[in-house]
Amino acid sequence: MADQRQTAKSHLAELLRSCVQCGLCLPTCATWLATGNEVHSPRGRLLLLEEVLNIEDPDTNIPVAFLAAFDHCIGCRACETACPSGVPFSLLEYGQGLAGDLVVNGSPEIPQPAVPGFVLRRLDSPSVLRFLGRVAGGTRSFFAGILGRRWRSRLDHLPVGMRSLVRLVGSMPTAPETDDQLRALLDDLVKSSSVVPPQTYPEDAPVSDDSPSDVAFFQGCANNGLLSGPSRRLCELLRSAGCRVEVPQGQDCCGALAAHTGRPTRAAAQHHRNREVFNKNTGTGSRIVVEAAGCGLELKEGLGDLGSQVIDAVHLLSGLNLPVLRAVPLKVAVHDPCHARHGQGISQQPRELLSRIPGLTLVEAAEVEVCCGSGGVWGLRYPEISEQLGRRKAENLATTGADLVVTSNPGCLGQIADGLALIAPDLPILPLTDLVWYAVKPE
Amino acid sequence: MGTQKGPALAGLSRILGPDALLTDPAARLVYSRDSSHMTLGRPLGIALPADASTLRKVVRFCKVNELAVVTRGTGTGLSGGAVPNEGEVVLATSQLKALGPVDDQGLRVRAEAGVLNDQVSAHASSFALHFAPDPSSQSISSIGGNIAENAGGPHCLRHGVTLHHLLRLEWCDVQGRALTTGRGLACERGIDLTSLLCGSEGTLGVVTAADLKLVTDPQSVATMAAFFPDLNDATGSVVSLLRAGLMPVAVEMVDQPMLEAVEAAFGFGFPTDVAAAMILEFAGQPEEVAEDADQAGNLLMGNGAREIRRAEDAATRMELWKCRKKAFGAVGRLAPSYVTMDVVVPLGKLPDLVREIQVIKAKHGVEIATAFHAGDGNLHPGVHYDDRDSELRRAAHEAADEIIRTALAMDGSVTGEHGVGIEKLHAVPWQLDPVSLELMWDIKRVFDPEDRLNPGKALPPPGSALAVPPSVPRGCTFNWDSMTVTAEADVSLSELQAQALERGLWLPVGLAAATTQADDPMGPGLGSDRSISSVVENILFSPALVAGGSARHFLLELWAETGAGRLLHTGAPVFKNVAGYNLAQMLCGSGRVLAQPRAATFQLRPAPEKLGVWRFADLSGDGNFWEGIHSLIDRLAHRDPTLGGPVFVIDGSQEDCSASGPQGTVTVLAPGRDRSWDLGDLDKRLVEVASLAGLELLEQKRFDFRSWSHALVHLPDWALAWPDWSVSAKRIQGKIEADRGPGDLQKTSFLPQKPPSRMIWQASPALVWIPGSATENEGWCCDHCCSGGKPTQLPDPDAGVPLDLLRGMKKVFDPDGRLDNPLWLKDENHG
Ligand SMILES: Cc1cc2nc3c(=O)[nH]c(=O)nc-3n(C[C@H](O)[C@H](O)[C@H](O)COP(=O)(O)OP(=O)(O)OC[C@H]3O[C@@H](n4cnc5c(N)ncnc54)[C@H](O)[C@@H]3O)c2cc1C
Ligand code: SF4
Ligand code: SF4
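That is the input. Now the predicted structure with iron/sulfur cluster docked in place:
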């Protein structure tokens, strides 16, 4: 056991030696940008890890301040993408793991989530989320009714405790449920946009097709519970591109929530269950398509052999021939979920996909590579940093002059919606696939 | 150290607030390191002040409580400058993030110290402007850190290092006083504190903000990579390029081992079976760039390049740059530990040094990979080793020291841009002589008597200097291969320029020639000659100067005699040098109050081919004369400043310039190339604009730049005389304003409401000269007084400049007041 630990440690120490401490990862690290404190930077965390690995005596306690630093890491992996020296994220993940006990058992340096544990533990249930979504939606309408369109910024001056409640309400992911609601929203946007619609639009050049195939659709708790409209439309979209879409019954949460709340056994059980379900329903060669980038990354790792068949929905769509039917003359900014951009290397695909829509202009925000600060449970434990990052992201997006923001992860959707509500309440955000659906399905 | 930890921390916490003072073990570990891999001790605490005023309180508190302060930007320094000793206070500027509005006419912006280098350019990008210094760490290094290290970067070849892009610093001394370094004019005379603080590694003061110069984005850029099978051919080609009159914005290089590491990291698909890859970039007008790139391509192929790749689009361009800029990071893949050097040699010695490095490598049996700022003669050989093997470690450090000594023997410098920090302290004494080190320490004691600001960094201990200074050179010696000239104080500028121009080079501080103007009743004019000492003493010297910059920009090395009679040799004949304080630049423009120049080395640049001259007249008398001139200036004001000029000699004197409608002539002088896209294009635009504005073209000529003095017959006599005074100017909303620097209320606009009848307007740097007739009653204030053809005493420094520190320096350099003694340096009650 001790030997094993020693081998693991020396393996990590070897990996760590590739860090030349250049600091080029800092400007992409959300927690450093938010705090200006280098302890909360990738290089800082790696220096602390180096010290931890140097501790010979297993009984020596790691200072809590070190663990707190590891725990502040969102796990966005932006630093891994930025690093010219190839330092792997697994090092930081190891640090996060060390802090895990403190997260579970509580410690003054490691904050507990702003929501009670019994609620938190049930967030991997679509029905609980659906209920919470309704409550949040009702509360939002209530506030908007009495305070007007700028309700969110009007409530920004409340005392801390109240504010985090408002934030919870503001950042609960939401999107138009019915197709008509979505069409109405986008029709209005197009009408008021300054982008000139194209006179003629070119034939959508056929892409080098992974020709239409069988896909098994992974639902995901948040999508299923809070964003069923977009999920339904995504399936329609896939079908109109010629895919045969199957939604295997009995699927479970991807396991990310349990893993990030210190319940590895539960996560393993969920992985196991999903493996069984998808094994039964997925032929070799067909794809498991995942809507939320966060679930996608977890499944690629958690589904074992099936992992290689997992594909992000946007990634899949970008390779399919779509019968694009209408121009969407809008200026659109894309927010890349970290788990897509850094976790799965998906950043070109959404842009390629959208640039096939006639009339649509893509605009690029500053700090595209930086996390929006949602971070799932992380955002509930570090609400202040998270809120600051949400605003920062919203500001960067609003500065582009975009008419619309799109993204492909429920957490990002809610987080950025809340930021935008504060900074630019007239700038809407939608699931990326909803925008594509709108271009493909005029009526 | 007399202070108890507890009370000190409590005091700091009171100033900063508990969240902005870090004292936990994690922070004390993280802030004990920077990119240099060096470490000394753990800091007492880390202060993250929210604004400059809190920062100053922290500095003052530390002084009072006998605590040492280490300022930190983002800790990317490679020489350990931000690494604290045990128990010191780290003062991090990461919260000082304000960026002011971009002044797109004055081409400047104010940035606080904690702003990242890249953020400045991003901020200015919508005006098609950028901040030129581009260290490879630009995405993360702070402006404060860039200033404190005088950082360089690939594009500094054409545009100059950080110092050349600073107009004014806001800083605090060890007492926590809010200070500035001057008014921030385009070209300012005085004891230049900006030069002194820049590169002083936080040992003299803490920079809180800076007014930065911006440069215009080029219309077109061509980036290319050349692959050389032979290292000698590659290094030799650098000089050939510049000597061929090509002025790339950047010439960078990586050698084979470095290329391999970069390939392993990024897989660009570059050949790795070559000895070196050179990356060069041209910028300017599309045709110019295409022509230059073709010419360079042919030249490099002729010099032994095997293959040339040109980046056709922005994405490929980024790839090529990544190869160079991420080289340092990719080094982590070569070996776990390395010593990176930062030596710089005269350009002509580059091939020799690179050959010597191969010998040293073989002799010590070590691995070396090198990235070069080749155009600057600046090399970063990295000796790689596994630090678990003490034998290898010893060999690596021995090899590194031998490389440094070899560079020094070639008149080089220990460090071109990374700074001394703690890492190069042992080597600096090999470069500095006792007098210069002693003066640096004297200055340090004036600024920081108790050695509280970053102690133990930048300067080796007093008395440690070992170098023997070169004796004062005689006459004028050109080093054509290194593109430098060393001249004794009384050498005439005209002689120097004439010889340089014969070889297609010049010193781009302006022109002067021995013509026959000496008897002119208005005093000797532009045509009259100037000595090298005058060029050094008075950075402004010539009215109709068609210049690319100030003497401070091109001065590399100086011999001077202090008032106390000590012979000072400072700087080195290299394009970049940050070993010790920038005494040469500090003295340049300081008149004769601290020291008298004895000789100087300057950088030379490829000379322009031609001087275009246009003369227009307003014969209509319809009152549109000044508007017409305005449109002309508008068209040309944003020319690349490194090209020099254009200059407008405006003579409204034929008629009284009163309400009845001024009449007059304007002569435009512009250096450039004899091509349709340069002077030809200028020609078209000028004539077009002029005719719209009702100006008539009287004359249009192009002179060979070497015989530029023939152009002078086209200028009115008064323009050849020394003007009474000149003013730094800037244009705001169609008006020219006297530029008294930011925050100064005495701005007076005079165009078009009340123009003096005669003046010379120079676009870059923006300066205005007005001959004798203009007086203060026209609303102008005189900054750079010249009278009777001779520069007068130095003007009073700006209110923010610490007179007590300047007086302290006077005592160091000229204790008995043997040299010039302006009132403000003598009089304790003054200011
Ligand atoms: C990958 C990489 C590439 C690099 N490439 C280059 C390059 O191309 N060219 C180059 O010149 N350098 C380069 N460097 C070195 C380094 O980035 C520069 O020296 C940079 O200017 C340091 O800035 P910083 O903010 O990190 O300063 P720090 O490392 O924090 O500090 C450096 C020094 O400046 C002082 N200092 C910092 N801020 C202030 C202030 N506000 N007032 C007074 N003193 C202050 C500190 O006390 C210290 O002595 C590179 C470094 C890395 C890691
Ligand atoms: S992780 Fe990579 S980018 Fe960050 S400091 Fe280390 S080597 Fe540099
Ligand atoms: S994973 Fe994200 S939050 Fe964590 S250190 Fe890297 S960039 Fe920062």
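Chain B touches chain A at residues 22, 24-27, 29-31, 33-35, 37, 48, 74-76, 92, 94-95, 97, 114, 116, 118, 122, 137, 139-141, 265-266, 326, 328-333, 336 (CB under 8 Å).
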